[in-house]
Write a structure and sequence with these properties.
alpha+beta; 6-stranded mixed β-sheet; 15 helices
Length: about 450
């Protein structure tokens, strides 16, 4: 087994004197990779460290921890171990066990790489894993990018065994007398990937013995083509940020346009794990529809304003708060209320209400869905949504505007105005003035 040509082809080797951190479960694949990299480092002037994560799912997990630690101790390989309860985190995040495990593993790898000063993180994905990934993506209805499978390199993650078969791995273990452990959960066919590996792949190999190699070859072809398409996308998108002129997107063929939108999503902090074809199609529709806003997974918002299409994280308004006599900070606003004589003339950033509302709890918060106002001079009550649209207030901004409630009733909303029911009355000697100031990057905006 010679991994060096594959590693050089994909620039996997660290700089001279550098270090590769090897993710080691104790199973045959990762033990093969750890031993191979340890020996290769002696020839190619780099060192190896190991990281092992106990998933908190098996009674035998401590056995695997001790096995990996002893293997590394005998060869003076630095070894980092962590224990994380994957089931607990899956419940906390609201995701499946497999997804939670994947996410936690890479978080653990990143911490261990920083601790050991590693330049690269090597995982033991092999050709069988590649074939399974392509098949799973096909069944999920993925596009060409998903059918390209697992990349040999992503950032500082490298996969030296990706073109190596399970048979080659087992031959290497036997030749070098390397022991390994068996993870009992690998036989659990309630997990999708295990069922595919243990049940479906053997049937495919019966029908076509070269199935695994053929699937991997297809993935390699698609990855090369995908790299070509991504090169065209990069020529259109700005160097950084998630905003692009609509004209630049619209000039692209449909397939490249969707790739450009996926590239924009990747620039967001949440990544594109939860994005599906329906979300990109909705973004495509927004691009053609003129100005508007679209809510997407992970709190991402797609916007079209004029000739610009962009993504941003939705700003979150704070919780409702009682409005005391002194000023308070609510989101981007400073809000204060005070009593003024009826003769007082409100300023541009003030709203006047009758004092009767003090009999009820006065709060500031976001407008509740469906609430509306009957403004002076209007024919009737209209929804806040409609009033904001008439004033060209951006939909993304609407959910951040301060709304003032007297008990459960919407009394006023900035900057729309005060409901007729809560306006000062001619017979009142005093009124409530609510003063609103919005903080901007340069200070306060009183308009």
């Amino acid at each position: 087994m010679d991994l060096l040509p594959f590693m050089k082809q994909h620039n996997m080797l660290p700089p001279g004197g550098g270090r590769i951190l090897c993710a080691v479960s104790g199973g045959r694949d990762s033990m093969c990779l750890l031993h191979y990299l340890w020996k290769l480092g002696e020839r190619e002037n780099f060192t190896v460290a190991a990281v092992h994560m106990d998933h908190g799912q098996r009674d035998t997990a401590r056995r695997d921890v001790f096995f990996v630690q002893n293997f590394c101790r005998e060869r003076r390989i630095p070894c980092v171990t962590e224990r994380v309860s994957v089931p607990d985190m899956a419940r906390k995040w609201g995701v499946g066990i497999e997804e939670a495990g994947r996410r936690l593993r890479y978080e653990t790898f990143a911490r261990a790489a920083q601790l050991t000063g590693a330049d690269r993180i090597a995982t033991a994905h092999h050709a069988g894993d590649q074939a399974e990934t392509v098949l799973l993506n096909l069944l999920r209805g993925t596009g060409p990018e998903g059918l390209a499978g697992i990349p040999p390199v992503r950032g500082n993650i490298i996969r030296p065994l990706l073109a190596t078969s399970r048979q080659e791995i087992e031959a290497y273990l036997a030749e070098n007398g390397i022991d390994h452990t068996e993870d009992e959960t690998n036989q659990d066919t309630t997990m999708t990937r295990n069922r595919l590996r243990l049940t479906i792949m053997p049937l495919l190999k019966e029908l076509y013995p070269g199935a695994e190699q053929s699937i991997c070859r297809t993935a390699q072809i698609l990855r090369r083509e995908e790299e070509c398409w991504q090169e065209q996308v990069r020529a259109v998108l700005p160097e950084r940020g998630a905003a692009v002129p609509c004209g630049a997107l619209l000039r692209l063929p449909y397939a490249l346009r969707l790739r450009a939108m996926r590239a924009l999503v990747e620039r967001m902090s949440v990544g594109r794990k939860d994005f599906a074809a329906v979300h990109y199609e909705a973004m495509e529709a927004l691009l053609h529809s003129g100005e508007g806003m679209l809510s997407l997974p992970g709190g991402v918002v797609a916007m079209r304003r004029g000739d610009e299409f962009f993504l941003e994280m939705a700003r979150q308004a704070p919780a409702a708060a009682e409005l005391p006599p002194e000023s308070i900070r609510w989101g981007e606003y400073t809000v204060a209320r005070e009593i003024k004589p009826r003769s007082y003339v409100p300023e541009r950033n003030e709203m006047a209400l009758n004092c009767c509302i003090l009999r009820e709890r006065l709060t500031v918060g976001v407008c509740r869905p469906g609430d509306g106002l009957k403004l002076p001079g209007s024919r009737g009550r209209r929804s806040v949504k409609r009033l904001c649209a008439e004033r060209n207030i951006d939909p993304a901004e609407r959910g951040l505007l301060p709304a003032f409630y007297a008990g459960e009733r919407l009394a006023a909303m900035w900057p729309l105005g005060v409901d007729e029911e809560f306006l000062p009355r001619e017979t009142d000697g005093e009124m409530i003035i609510i003063k609103i100031e919005r903080e901007t990057s340069g200070g306060y905006d009183n308009g």
